[in-house]
Amino acid sequence: xxxxxxLPDFVFLPSQPFLMGTPERELSALAKTYGGTRxxxxxxxxxxxxRLPPFxxxxxxxxxxxxxxxxxxxxxxxxxxxxxxxxxxxLRDCPVTDVSWExxxxxxxxxxxVMAAPYRLPxxxxxxxxxxxxxxxxxxxxxxxxxxxxxxxxxxxxxITPVGAYPSGVSPWGCLDMAGNVWExxxxxxxxxPYRFDDGREDPNAPGRRILRGGxxxxxxxxxRCACRFRLAPTVRNEFLGFRLAFSTTS
Length: 251
Fold this sequence. Notes:
By secondary structure, the protein is an alpha+beta fold. The protein is built from five helices and nine strands; from the N terminus they run αββαββαααβββββ.
């Protein structure tokens, strides 16, 4: 199969104001509903309104089938979960995992060169806007949890599933798999709110942990909230970490 046939469809998002993060008044309720303490959710506050430049984001994460072309062409390290140089058939349409932030960056540079297009990781602000739309909803489909709409520990399959397997979990903009299945690397450094693009957090060469979004099939529903933030060192790889693509557009 050709590389172009394996590229995900892209959703084009306009420049509109949206709410990022969680209001501080809701932190205690989050702790009561999803566990933890008020302080464990504080990195999601203060909630603030942003307006981003227009951009495009992939409707689904990068699959093993697409990543396999990169591995073969660039001589990159194959994910250990493949147990070889190519993914097993049952994983071809699933999100690639066992990739670090650095691996994802290398993939984006390779794909940009091959396709002559500026592919990159989404910022965490872009990711959240694509997941929740402009109305500040808690999950991509709305404010109420529904275990049939996402692959999480709360009613999910217990294993990774192919991209697009939960169509009813679609976001307001048409993005799939933004709740559960795999954590997704973003471009952004772990930095406090309010989010600012120009404060150094989007410097690809800066040291520090990078933000992941979305939760995974092994996590409970609280991690699948659109505002949930997780962070890891950029060298970490495991079977729960994947990514999706984005690129900048002009208005």
